[in-house]
Amino acid sequence: MTAPAVARRLGRLSALLMVPRTARWVVAGFIVLLVLQALLVQQGLQRLRDIGTMFDHVARTALPAQQHAHEMQRAAQARIMLLLRMLAQPDPFEREADAQAFVQEGLAFGRARDALLALALDDATQIQLRHIQQQAVALSQRQRAMSEALLQGRDDEARALLEQQRLFDVQRELVLELQALAQRMQQQAQADQQRALEAQRSAERIVLMLGASLFALGVAIGVAVTRLVARAERLLLLDKERAEAAACRDPLTGLYNRRGFEQARELLLRASPNGTPHSLLLIDLDHFKPVNDTAGHDAGDALLRRLAQLLRDQVRPQDIVARLGGDEFAVVLVGLDAAQATQVGQRIRDAVADFSFEWGGRTFRLGTSIGVATVLTGAAEAAWSHAMKAADEACYEAKRRGRGQVVGAADVATPATGVQASVA
Ligand SMILES: Nc1nc2c(ncn2[C@@H]2O[C@H](COP(=O)(O)OP(=O)(O)OP(=O)(O)O)[C@@H](O)[C@H]2O)c(=O)[nH]1
After folding, report:
1. Residue 206, Cα to own-chain centre: how many angstroms?
2. Does 35 reside within a domain?
3. In the predicted model, is pLDDT for residue 133 greater than 80?
4. Which of 58, 199, 204, 393 has a CA between 20 and 30 Å from the CA of residue 110?
5. Same structural domain for residues 175 and 300?
6. What's residue 412's pLDDT?
7. In this structure, is residue 157 part of a structural domain?
């Protein structure tokens, strides 16, 4: 399967697994990384093999060919020198020794030639070598005749052979040709070496480039993954915070619900210095039900929203306002004692009484019954639930007294420890 086909399949797989788009890019990046790595290994191995072959050729063919050509040249020169020496010295023993050396050099020439022929040479070299071989055979026959004459003391005949057969000229031509061969072999060896070195440099460049690309891609993928994870974490955190915030809010009015109210007042009590008074107002609407019954539930909802806003407007930003359920609200007046809280309660009651709600061409007016209790921070935890209970009972008492009242906990029962009474 080709690399793009693999990428397509993985892309489809990640889509099936609901992997986000960025993650799909990361997966694709990893695939490219793997493909590049495979390419790097394949290219590296291929280049190494090529370089090995080239150096092998230099070692097995080019350099030995050069050596053999030199050896042939040397042996050919040595043979003519030996003949000249034989001619120059009359001592038969010395001549005998030189004759033997002459034969040995002939053998050395033949060995070097055979070794050269055994190598894998190109066509031009083989043609050149064959030509040299023909020249060498012709020359060798004449040289052997001259050597025979000298060994038998027929020096004049030997001299005549030397001159008539142009042994020196033929010899020079052969040596020149052998020099050309040796030079050619040397150039080939150098060219082969050069090619091998260039291949090595090119392999280094490719490996470096691919390595750098791999590194850059790896870094890019690393950064993408890190960002992806960080983003996912941020979103999760945000979701969690939103869910927690939503769990603490009343969806209709946006005020705290009972849970949010409990959390907020807990925080408040923990943050306040001991002995600070905080007051609780429990507010229940009077005659809310008829709004629902006559104008409908939507009207009731709208009215609850408007009254929630009215409550917020009546208190300070630091005060805690909540809808505990139905038409029941609670307010914690931060730092206010019972007397001050009672005043705020009365202000709220009056504001609600003054408020008129228009719906479907009809006007509604409502009242409120409010119970007040006060808690001192540092009191036992149970003091808070006592205060809640006391405010609830006070609110009930307000209803009982005919509604539209603000009633303090002291008017209802003896307050528990830490709960201060308030007077309406
Ligand atoms: N529109 C609307 N009505 C609600 C919601 N929650 C509760 N209610 C209604 O609020 C009314 C509360 O009942 P009550 O407190 O007995 O009604 P009330 O007329 O105020 O009675 P009193 O408090 O005795 O004056 C009920 O009719 C509930 O159906 C709400 O979210 N939306």
Report:
1. 22
2. no
3. yes
4. 58
5. no
6. 64
7. yes
DSSP 8-state secondary structure symbol assigned to residue 415: P
Pocket test for ligand 1, best of 252, 255, 257, 289 (most atoms within 8 A of CB): 289
408 alpha carbon – ligand 1 mean position (Å): 23
CATH number for the domain including 210? 1.20.120.1730
In a domain, 266, yes or no: yes
Specify the pLDDT at position 40: 79
Mean pLDDT of 31-46: 82
Which atom from ligand 1 is nearest to the alpha carbon of 292? 1
How far does residue 139's CA lie from ligand 1's centre (Å)? 134
Domain that holds residue 117: 52-240
Residue-wise pLDDT for 292-317, tens only, equals 999 999 999 999 999 999 999 999 99
Answer for the pair 281, 372: CB distance below 8 angstroms, yes or no: yes
Q: How far is the CA of 347 from the centre of ligand 1 (A)?
A: 23
Structure tokens at 90: 């009359």
Tally of structural domains, the chain: 2
Domain co-membership, 342 together with 222? no
pLDDT reported for residue 2: 60
Answer whether 297 contacts ligand 1 (Cβ < 6 A).
Answer: yes
- Separation CA 292–CA 301 (nearest Å): 8
Question: Cα dihedral sign for 396, 400, 402, 408?
Answer: negative
Q: Does ligand 1 have an atom closer than 6 angstroms to the CB of 364?
A: no
Alpha-carbon gap, residue 54 to 208, rounded angstroms? 22
Is residue 349, in this structure, part of any structural domain at all?
A: yes
Residues 266, 236: one domain?
no
pLDDT at 282: 98
In this prediction the ipTM stands at 0.97
Give residue 251 CA to ligand 1 midpoint distance, Å.
Answer: 17
| Dist. CA 326 → ligand 1 center (Å) | 5
> 69: closest CA among 194, 175, 193, 173?
175
- d(CA 401, ligand 1 centre) in Å: 19
Identify the band that residue 322 occupies on the pLDDT scale cut at 50, 70 and 90. very high
